[in-house]
Amino acid sequence: MMNRKESNPESARGPRRRPLGRRRFLAQAGVGAAGLALGRRAIARPALERVLRRDGAPKSLVLVQLGGGNDGLSTIVPHGDDVLYRMRDTTVHAKKDLLRIDDYRAFNPQLKKLRAQFDAGRLAIIEGCGYPEAIRSHFKSLEVWHTARPTGRASGDGWIGRLVAEAMGEDPAADSVVHLGGRAPYSVYSSEHPPVALASPTGYRWFGDDDVYAMGGNAICEHEPAADARHIGRDRALQALRTTLDDATESSRKVRHAAASYRTGVEYPKSRLGASLRDVAALIEGGVGTRVYSVQMGGFDTHTNQLIAHNRLMATVDAALGAFFEDLSGRESAKDVVVAVYSEFGRRVQENGSKGHDHGKAAPMFVWGQKVKGGLHGEHPSMENLDAGDVTFTTDFRSVYATFIDKLFGATPGPVLGGDYPLLDLI
Amino acid sequence: MMNRSRTSSRTSATFLRRGGAACVCLALVLPAWGSAPAVHGGDDVLPIQWDRRAVEHVWNRAGFGIHEDEIDRWVEAGPEALVDHLLAPRPLVGPGGELQELLPSFEFEPTRIDLLDYEQRSLEQRREFRRIAARENAAAFQGLRTRWIEQIASGDDPLRDRMCMFWHGVFTSSYRTVRHPSPMIEQHNALRAGALGSYDALLRAMLRDVALLQYLDGDKNRKGRPNENLAREVMELFSLGEGNYTEADIGEAARALTGAGVATRFDGGWYRFFAKRHDAGEKSILGVTGHHRPDDLPDILLAQPACARFIASSIIEYLEGAAPTDERTERYAEVLRATGYDVGFMLRQLLLDPAFYRDEIIGARITSPVDYLMGMSVRLGDQLPPNFVVQAASELGEDLFQPPNVKGWESGLHWMTTARFMLRGNIAGAALGLISGEGLRSDALGFVDEMSMEEGMEDMSSGDAMAMGVEQLRRDELAQLVRALESAKYQPSFSFVRAVRGDGAQTDAEIVESMAASLLAIEPPVETLRMLEGRLFQLRRREGLAAKRLTQSRSLAEPVLRELGHLILSLPEAQLH
Predict the structure, then answer these.
(1) For chain A, which residues make up each domain, given as ranges?
(2) A321-367 per-position pLDDT tens digit
(3) Which of A72, A332, B221, B521 would give a disulfide with B227, using CB separation of 3.0 to 4.6 Å?
């Protein structure tokens, strides 16, 4: 798809894909607006066809980060445990409002759509996810989740960055990893293959005449390629940049087209998370070929008056993820898509003095997919044997990562995660 | 073997003495280092071809670019004069005759609070205090970033700012971890003050630097509970480079560093040696055995042959954009060793080294976001609002004082993701006044509209399309950057027409050549000029302008030339320097 391979060493001047002499270019330019319009179509068609081809949708992963430390005990509530009601006063829901799973667990009252997905067998709850020697700092704990290593960023690239290096060959497509909505989390950071971070698909473009911009790529070599030993360094660098520009124009067309032409009967909520997830659905359906998507939502750091704040957060999450799941459920293009929802830690069992909860440790993860084995996985952490007031992890989150690496990307988890973790029977 | 009672911070007199002695040694090694720098090899080395290209090259790499009108002056002055200018100490006497500090330092005086008083306050009052503090901190941090950009933009001390940027990526610390502006400001002041001085002094200062100690957990490194983070990065990233030490050396160095910590309070912290936390036992680091204390570690590192090699090659790679050969690295390492790690002296040698001007190097370095933005600003002769530059650089991947990790920023092609490549061009468009908030809005709507037409999507109502366009825009980083420009009341004031007229350009080819020369940091290839010529022809046709009219009617021609300028600044050629 991308042309980096073609443009490699031998031809110092880059590929000649569209033979177009200088005279011809000038002549075409002379035709003016009509000529340009023609040019656009000529360029846009192949990309369009690729977009419309739906076969062979790749297996892909959607990572949803709930930043700030989501209270796991208010998300999947152990209503059957008296400890919960002993240690929590203002932050617990009335039992009758909870969406009961069994005698012990229930969904938060707001999570109606997630509950429906759970009932349909597509949503897995992996209980008590965490890691040894849990860190209560947002930044440090996120680093552990993002790199899968206790030393965090100091250990190098994010785990997705390493996955790309491990599983996607020498020269992955420019848009193999896409983060939607603002700053990308460190999980996708790569010193070799940086991800594409998009605020929004419509902004993923050069503002001006696209076809003119595209002329700045390798197409320019069809004019009068320079061969000047004085500029050997410059020309080498230009060749690499022109290839990036070609990637950019092609990727931009694909992505924007996929987003703008996306139609769905599902109504997404107006939240940012909803908007980003709609974009993800569009890119999946549009066959862009992305393997890892990343989105995030913040605000889960509920130190004060948690009940109201957390209810609102749960409602937002349920509306956005609910719409997304519903949308993907019926789609052929999404049959091999897996969605994982995580937060950097859960929260303290005991309520604090401000009707909230301080930073804790383990919490459940959600994993969704048409082929995901829904239901409960792992083991609920003990509410009796607390670790400094927190529930301790029962499943290392890296087992979940390892399962994705193995099942979705066919790679060996060890090198990506810097250790071996047992696979889960999830997919 | 180390003298334990000695204080670590050496006086500048020591350095002068060491430097003086070093010069003697160097004179032995390099008999003619004065005007004809013999460090650059024997008879087979060609002299520097000192022309406009060479002058621009020096300014691109040792500064942040040069306005094209300034180039000839330096061609005439010659390489030594330019290098003297770049390395000259800045005036110490202010306009009123008062003695000035060598460098304007950034200061931050946070609101102080009496601890006893604080204890007496109600929860609500404490919360209010914390809110004020958070606001002040955020403002101080933003101030640090914008003032550095202002400093760079002023062009007062370009080589110092260039090297400060280098050290900022080496001895890097992140505000995300440190979370208080004062240590970040202090670290920046130290790096800037020492940017062209002795690496020896810089390394010592950084091992006592609060931000660095906090960033690398130095303050958590205690006797019996060593934390190796700082020791490892000191060897791997700050002094020796990978492969020049063993894991055992790291463990022992971590023990030597125990006790080097930070005494903290609300309003920051300061370096303190906690004797109780220090492991006073014997350590063996890189073959040197003794009861090493934190301040002994630099002595051991600086004496390693690998240290000078690592620093020399890092500096050369940063400025040249490619790693130097082993032979060249060793020559420059020798310069550092012989001068007590005098970085300024090494830079003088480097900037007068014909190899610095070789064809593989000139015009081949990919600009960092700050390089790109500041270069554009310098060449346009228009000052972009500093907070806009900070924000734009951050969107482009260079978030000053918040590096992605301890290795600092990945350079070269790593800056250029597809999204950021296009965003650079869009930022240029905004700086040229071609992209406005209003324009973005109608463009987003237009695109949605066009797509629905093309695809026969009659099912999408225009209301839907509009809602979608507006929604997308709300999240768009470019829209936010444009808002920052608009709220700073930024108006581009340069005139392309005037510049082109000044060059006496008349034909399309001449106009393109004139524009490219003023906007690019490199000589563009022929094919690029031809493409631009074709584009100018198109634009003129569109506006119904004959070639001659273009330089006659400013009001008609300026928009056309800006559109051409936007394309030039968006090309691969504009990403190089």
Answers:
(1) 59-208+250-417
(2) 999 999 999 899 999 999 999 999 999 999 998 899 999 999 999 99
(3) B221
Interface of B with A in 164-183 (CB under 8 A): 176-177
Measured between CB atoms, does A151 come within 8 Å of chain B? Answer: yes
Residue listed under structure tokens 């939502």 = A297
Q: Is the pLDDT of residue B551 over 80?
A: no
* Termini Cα distance of chain B: 49
The pLDDT score that the predictor gives to residue B454 is 53
**Cα–Cα distance, B191 to B197 (Å, whole number):** 10
Alpha carbon A36 to its chain centroid, in Å, reads 37
> Which is more confident, B131 or A65?
A65
CA dist B70 and A24 (Å) reads 38
Query: Domain residue spans in chain B?
Result: 12-306, 369-487, 496-575
**pTM score:** 0.83
The three-class DSSP label of residue A103 is: coil
Chain A residue with the nearest C-alpha to that of B450: A260
Q: Is A51 exposed, middle or buried (0-12, 13-18, 19+ CB in 10 A)?
A: buried
What phi, psi does A130 have (nearest 5°)? 180, -155
Contacts of B152 (CB under 8 A, 6+ apart): B64, B158, B161, B370, B374
What residue has token string 């937060």? Answer: A343
Per DSSP, the residues of B472-533 read: HHHH-HHHHHHHHHHHTT------HHHHHHHTT--SHHHHHHHHHHHH-SSPPPHHHHHHHH
- Across the interface, of A186, A225, A241, the residue whose CB is closest to B572 is A241
**Is residue B478 within 8 angstroms of chain A, CB to CB?**
yes
Lowest mean pLDDT among A105-109, A236-240, A376-380: A236-240
C-alpha to C-alpha distance for A237 and B313, rounded to whole angstroms: 21
- Domain A59-208+250-417 carries which CATH code? 3.40.720
Q: Which chain B residues in 324-383 lie under 8 Å from chain A, judged by CB atoms?
A: 358-366
Buried b (16+ CB within 10 A) or exposed e, B269-287: bebbeeeebbbeeebebbe
Interface ipTM: 0.87
Both tokens of residue B479? 């829209």
